[in-house]
Amino acid sequence: MKDQACIVGIGETAYVRRPGSGMSLLRLQLQAAVRAIEDAGLDGARIDGLMPFPNLGSAEAFAANLGCENLRYAATIHMGGAAPVASVEAAATAVIAGIASYVLIPAGWNGYSGARARQTVAADAASMPGGEIARDYYLPHGLTAPPQWYSLMARRHMHEYGTRPEQLGAIAVAMRKHAQLNPRAVMHGRPMSLDDYLASPMLADPYRLFDCCLETDGAAAALVTTPERARDLDKKPVYIMAAASGQPYPADEITNRKDIFKTGLTIAAPEAFARAGIGAADVDFAQIYDCFTFEVLQQIEETGFCKRGEGGAFVEGGRIELGGELPVNTHGGLLSEAHVLGMNHIVEAVRQLRGDAGERQVENAEIGVVTGWGDFGDGSIAVLRR
Amino acid sequence: MAEEDTGYVRPLPELQGFSKDFYEWCRKHELRFQRCSDCGAWRHVPREMCAGCGSWRWEWSRSSGRGSLFTWTVVVRAMHPAFEADVPLAPAVIEMEEGVRLLSQVVDCRPDELEIGMPVEVVFDDVTAEITLPKFRRLRS
Predict the structure, then answer these.
(1) ipTM above 0.90, yes or no
(2) Burial tier of A201 (Cβ tally within 10 Å: 0-12, 13-18, 19+)
(3) What is the dihedral of CA A132, B73, B64, B12, to 10 degrees?
(4) A118, A150, A170, B29: least buried by Cβ within 10 Å?
(5) Please, are residues A267 and A348 in contact by the beta-carbon 8 Å criterion?
(6) A203 contacts on B by Cβ (under 8 Å)
(7) Cβ contact (<8 Å) for B11 and A135?
(8) Whether pLDDT at B79 is above 70
(9) pLDDT tier at A115 (50, 70, 90 boundaries)?
(10) End-to-end CA distance of chain B
(11) Segment B4-57, tens digit of pLDDT
């Protein structure tokens, strides 16, 4: 797989909260899709592969609007927030195998002006990962929302390894700092100190408000093809050195995992690095799915940037900030740029590897990692190079 | 699924399939989990097969009802309207003596009194005429 597929187009809408995008879910994602196609210098008719985000759009609707008359590959990876990066993996295998030539991966939602996270489960218990398990065994006891179910893991990590709130805060502060260098970020112009973090209200102890990602409107998209086809396109390709995905066990139930820190990424990361032929130390930056602060710490450990239990110390002292050893979420992430389902992490990685990240450019960025996390701990990872 | 007769407004399990069996035992104030008839492994949540030995045979075996607190969260801001009057509320993971874990609540402590490893025992909360939820209290030695 190594270097046999690449990303040649990226697109984003504006990322907003109040008053909302003013667009339908489909129109919003189409806007990002069109920008990705234009970025590559391609035509919608050439797109023959589509990988929409689970439950947010159909390949049929995208194809009918974009004029994809010869669609031959349509698939959705059901991994929640791990889906976009897992889709990069699937799209790469599709173009390498020759079952599609140009695969478009769109994702986006009206996460602020549409149904909010706190309303969706109340309206439809089946919308929770685990489905009937959650309905019959979690909801009756008041475990209803993502910050609650993931904070169960965060507390256990604090107990086993002495991880402290200030260390979770260091993650939130780093993302916010990066957002100050990104005019597209919802939190641009709104800096935050560690004291501000510690003063933010508790939502699901140990998670405070500023441990939690934003709820925003916006969409992003990426386009995958082969290096041979990329030669005829506008942009220098960003190569997919490797991509992999995995699931925790059991994936549909969070309380009975023998090792509760073993998630999809625990399986996927070593596989991705082996396929890429590099190690974690060779990575210049990482865009890590940051639904909550502890998930960043946990993914840093499970990706192998440090040992398990050492993530708390790793994220301190500016190590994950621009200029540090491993800049993480240089765009501000879901915590401070916008919650675009992790698609914005892929876009930012490509931008960094093109050298187009402006003020927040990681110097001499050659290799970057993007991760995805979703649905109780499904994981995905892509290792990209310029 | 509010039960009009009791005014109970929180979400309830659906009495279907394995959940029907699990909660029917709870209604009789017995905490039972599936146990493989071949290899003897306990399991929760209920499953069709034993993932360890592949057996399709199992029985509902009675738990000692004792366990310890594995982890918990404290819901300070309700993210489901049905729990707005209940915060702070602490959904907790209990590790049973049999090795299985279940999501429940500890009813006789405030959230700030919870400690990982705290010994607990099951109590039964008859929340409606049909549904009894297994909950926990500190184990009295």
Answers:
(1) yes
(2) exposed
(3) -30
(4) B29
(5) no
(6) 76-77, 79
(7) yes
(8) yes
(9) confident
(10) 38
(11) 556 899 999 999 999 999 999 999 999 999 999 999 999 999 999 999 999 999
* H or E, element range at A91: helix A83-97
- Asked if B91 lies within 8 A of A132 by C-beta distance, the reply is no
Please report the pLDDT score of residue A21 as a whole number: 97
Look at residue B2 and tell me whether its pLDDT is greater than 50. Answer: no
Verify whether the Cβ–Cβ distance A153 to B71 is below 8 Å.
yes
- Specify the pairing of strand A367-374 against strand A378-385: antiparallel
Distance to chain B for A250, nearest Cα, Å: 10
Chain A partners within 8 Å of B51 (Cβ): 250
B-chain residues near A294 (CB < 8 A):
none
Handedness of CA A17, A22, A26, A29 (dihedral sign): negative
Residue B96: closest C-alpha in chain A: A256
Cβ distance of A137 and B116 shorter than 8 Å? no
Query: Tell me: the pLDDT tens digits for A292-344?
Result: 999 999 999 999 999 999 999 999 999 999 999 999 999 999 999 999 999 99
Closest CA to A340 of A244, A252, A222: A222
Strands A6-12 and A217-225: antiparallel
For B133, nearest residue in chain A (alpha carbons): A140
Which chain B residues are closer than 8 Å to A202 by Cβ?
Answer: 74, 76-77
Judge whether A245 and A85 are in contact, CB under 8 Å: yes
Q: How far apart are CA A69 and CA A102, in angstroms?
A: 13
Distance from CA of A211 to the nearest CA of B (A): 14
Whose structure tokens read 């909010």? A116
Distance from CA of B79 to the nearest CA of A (A): 5
User: Cβ–Cβ of B71/A156 closer than 8 Å?
Assistant: yes
Which chain A residues are within 8 Å of B83, Cβ to Cβ? 142, 144
Asked if B13's CB is within 8 angstroms of A141's CB, the reply is: no
E-only strand ranges, chain A = 6-12, 49-50, 73-74, 103-110, 202-205, 207-208, 217-225, 238-246, 285-287, 367-374, 378-385
Q: How far is A87 from chain B (nearest CA, A)?
A: 29
- SS3 state at A73: strand
List chain B residues with CB under 8 Å of A122: 80-82
**Which residue among A138, A152, A253 places its CB closest to the CB of B72?**
A152
Residue A332: is it exposed, middle or buried by C-beta count within 10 angstroms (0-12/13-18/19+)?
buried
Two structure tokens written together for A70: 């010869």
Element (H, E) at B103: strand B101-105
φ, ψ dihedrals at B136, nearest 5°: -135, 155
Please give the model's pTM, rounded to 2 decimal places.
0.97
